[in-house]
Automatic annotation (TrEMBL):
EC number of the protein: 1.8.5.4
Membrane topology: Peripheral membrane protein
Signal sequence coordinates: none
UniProtKB keywords: FAD, Flavoprotein, Membrane, Nucleotide-binding, Oxidoreductase, Quinone
Reactions performed catalytically: n a quinone + n hydrogen sulfide + n H(+) = polysulfur(n-2) + n a quinol
One cellular component term from this protein's GO annotations in UniProt: membrane
Role according to the record: Catalyzes the oxidation of hydrogen sulfide, with the help of a quinone. Consecutive reaction cycles lead to the accumulation of a polysulfide product on the active site Cys residues; these products are released when they exceed a critical length, typically as cyclooctasulfur.
Classification via InterPro entries: FAD/NAD-bd_sf, FAD/NAD-binding_dom, NADH-Q_oxidoreductase
Chloroplast listed as a keyword: no
Lineage, opening ranks: Bacteria, Pseudomonadati, Pseudomonadota, Alphaproteobacteria, Hyphomicrobiales
Alphabetized GO MF terms: NAD(P)H dehydrogenase (quinone) activity; nucleotide binding; quinone binding; sulfide:quinone oxidoreductase activity
Protein name: Sulfide-quinone reductase
Subcellular location: Membrane
Length: 429
């Protein structure tokens, strides 16, 4: 019997387990190792933080979904991966061995890299649903006692869409509460320009987002390197092209939410040949690690080099559709290996993003990620909000049922001209 272990039951790991079930021979055992037995839809966290969603609305019982698909769920979490021994040490001290391992452990949030940063200190977060619940309490305090706000993303961040999203969602929630006139808002970002998004812009995201920020009375600071978070201010240096400090800003804030830099989780960090210095898993075009050839990786934990040099470091975002393409390629490649064939599927790694603003939004498609691109499209409008709600509902539906891809989702993506798999290697042609 072939033993396949998927580590991490987030956006990438859950559908990884389901898609493997569809692709590998029925006799193979698929084990999903999670922390707890609940799946939580991360992209809805900004809505949870302003009370537009309850926690239960965005969570799914993984045990039931896994049972339905004949997948073993181990919910104690992993302590350490031992790829030389084909073994994962679990948090309760037991170990499981594998023939193939897929790492889908997502990001570790590097709040500790800046003084005063993160939940429990002087800023809030929407990266985890627990954080979003804490942020909601702070939001309610802000409505009761309005004051200045800072939203954004710090140096080394790669996830900029949710920062813009949260700024506009917060703006709408504060308008609905009739206190927006008493909340000066500043968007502080490490991006070299508004709308860069870690992708050197997509279509006219610069123009679209600058215009939206202006229309919503949100000021901005770009090329920002935050040096500390205080109780009532964010202190950030604005960096010139040559690395010198152009200005130091002490931006008043009684409510701060900034996206942190990501790094790989402790269970995989500092494993020679498996990870880069930030703890992200290095993979080839088939999602496979070069040194440990039975180890694959999908999702935010995968190492992707930055797009180019910027005055303040920014990373490349890994969005849901890109992750799904990694998952599809990985399932296909593991199935081929079990069948005695070489891996031949590549994910597209296209960036497709819907950023919701509560009553509108912007959408973009970058195909491929690195310019010049074949598709370099962005657009805005009320339809984006509806599409984001659709994405949430479809995704939760598919996790509940243990499906990797419902028909209509596939149809919609193909109508946009975006396929999940880029190529089948020449030996297949
Ligand atoms: P995650 O979904 O974070 O899953 C990782 C899982 O691994 C977690 O469940 C974690 O508990 C588990 N894990 C970690 N360590 C261990 C361990 N040692 N043992 C067991 N389990 C472990 N993308 C979009 O396309 N659209 C959006 O609208 C969007 N919104 C976003 C909003 C926010 C606030 C953020 C942070 C990201 C957003 N993204 C969005 C980007 C991306 O799609 C998400 O971050 C997505 O959740 C990443 O999937 P993942 O599987 O890589 O990581």
């Amino acid at each position: 019997m072939t033993d396949i272990v998927v580590l991490g039951a987030g956006l990438g790991g859950t559908i990884m387990a389901f898609e493997l079930r569809d692709q590998v021979p029925p006799g193979s055992r698929i084990t999903l190792v999670s922390k707890g037995s609940t799946y939580s839809f991360v992209p809805s966290n900004p809505w949870v933080a302003v009370g537009w969603r309850e926690r239960k609305d965005i969570e799914v019982d993984l045990q039931a979904a896994c049972e339905r698909r004949g997948i073993r769920l181990l919910s104690q979490g992993a302590e350490r991966v031992h790829p030389e021994e084909n073994r994962v040490l679990l948090a309760d001290g037991t170990s499981i061995s594998y023939d193939y391992l897929v790492l889908a452990t997502g990001p570790d949030l590097a709040f500790d890299e800046i003084p005063g940063f993160g939940p429990g200190q002087h800023s809030h977060s929407v990266c985890h649903v627990d954080h979003a619940m804490m942020t909601r309490e702070a939001f309610e305090r802000l409505v009761a006692n309005p004051g200045p706000v800072v939203i954004g993303a710090v140096q080394g961040a790669s996830c900029f869409g949710p920062a813009y999203e949260f700024a506009f969602i917060l703006d709408k929630a504060l308008r609905d509460a009739r206190v927006r006139d008493r909340v000066p808002m500043t968007f502080v970002t490490s991006e070299p320009y508004i709308g860069h998004l870690g992708l050197d812009g997509v279509g006219d995201t610069k123009g679209l987002l600058e215009s939206e920020l202006r229309n919503h009375h949100i000021k901005w600071i770009t090329n920002a390197r935050v040096t500390r978070f205080d109780e009532k201010a964010v202190v950030a240096e604005e960096i010139n092209e040559d690395g010198s400090v152009r200005a130091t800003h002490e931006v008043p804030s009684v409510f701060t939410m900034m996206l942190p830099a990501f790094r790989g989780v402790a269970a995989v960090r500092d494993i020679e040949g498996l990870t880069n210095p930030r703890g992200f898993i290095t993979v080839d075009k088939h999602q496979r690690n070069a040194r440990f050839q039975n180890v694959f990786a999908v999702g935010v934990g995968v190492a992707i080099p930055p797009m180019g040099k910027t005055p303040v470091p920014v990373g490349v975002p890994k969005t849901g559709f890109m992750i799904e393409s990694m998952v599809t390629a990985t399932a296909h490649n593991i199935a081929r290996l079990i069948d005695g064939k070489a891996p031949n599927a590549q994910g597209t790694w296209n960036a497709v993003c819907l950023a919701d603003f509560g009553d509108g939004g912007i959408a973009f498609v970058a195909q491929p990620q690195i310019p010049p691109r074949n598709v370099n499209w962005s657009s805005s409008g009320k339809w984006v909000h509806a599409a984001k709600v659709g994405f949430e509902k479809y995704f939760l539906y598919k996790v509940k049922l243990g499906k990797s891809e419902p028909f209509y989702e596939k149809l919609a993506l193909q109508a946009l001209g975006i396929d999940k798999l880029k190529a089948i290697a020449l030996d297949e042609a």
